[in-house]
Design brief:
about 210 residues; alpha/beta; 7 strands; about 25% strand; globular
Length: about 210
């Protein structure tokens, strides 16, 4: 599977955590899935019409684990656009889908350390590449976003940090193939993040090598 550093135009705008409403759609609201895991399957508007596909269930389970007690991470945002015409000349399929998933350390202070975010970004990319290297019809891009963590103590300069955005794509000749390849992409993402979470539980990210 292709994994690369993704230059997203929206990444230049600073964000806040927690955020209030979405810049692109004011109807979108921030949900704390750590305290309300029961609403994951009902609150994500982008995924509702795709609920019949296994990929959606795989994504729900990823979010439930990511925000659950076994994970050292959490997520504060995700998005999904369903199967549409392929716009990438690199992939010879008729349709594509895309979306994003934000990742941050549950210990919010770690997100203010550039070294910790650098480790997380590199380690995530390395883990994603080695899980299913023969898979051709999925891709994940890593992007680091600037964030102000408003619930941390201190003046604004001490609240400045970053989070990792995982942008994802899948391709296929028809909707079923697209969603099947998306499911495979989500499964790769799940294994990678679970592996990193377990690694962090046993070793300090500052001293862990991902070579």
């Amino acid at each position: 599977m292709k994994v690369y550093e993704h230059n997203d135009p929206g990444s230049l705008s600073p964000r806040s955590h927690p955020w209030i409403d979405g810049e692109s759609d004011p109807t979108h609201r921030y949900y704390d899935f750590r305290t309300r895991p029961d609403i994951i399957r009902s609150a994500l508007e982008d995924l509702q019409e795709w609920n019949t596909y296994p990929a959606t269930e795989t994504f729900y389970r990823l979010l439930e684990w990511l925000n659950g007690s076994e994970s050292v991470f959490e997520s504060n945002d995700c998005a999904f656009s369903g199967a549409t015409a392929n716009t990438s000349a690199q992939f010879s399929k008729r349709l594509q889908c895309s979306g994003r998933l934000m990742i941050l350390y549950r210990d919010l202070a770690l997100n203010t350390s550039p070294e910790q975010i650098h480790w997380l970004t590199n380690a995530t990319a390395h883990a994603l590449r080695r899980i299913d290297p023969a898979f051709e019809w999925g891709a994940i891009g890593t992007t680091v976003l600037s964030v102000r963590f408003t619930t941390l103590p201190g003046p604004p300069k001490l609240q400045r940090g970053q989070q990792l955005m995982l942008s994802f794509w899948a391709w296929g000749e028809n909707e079923l193939e697209v969603m099947t390849n998306l499911d495979r992409t989500f499964r790769i993402m799940t294994v990678a993040l679970r592996t990193l979470s377990d690694e962090i539980c046993h070793f300090s990210p500052a001293t862990t090598s991902n070579d």
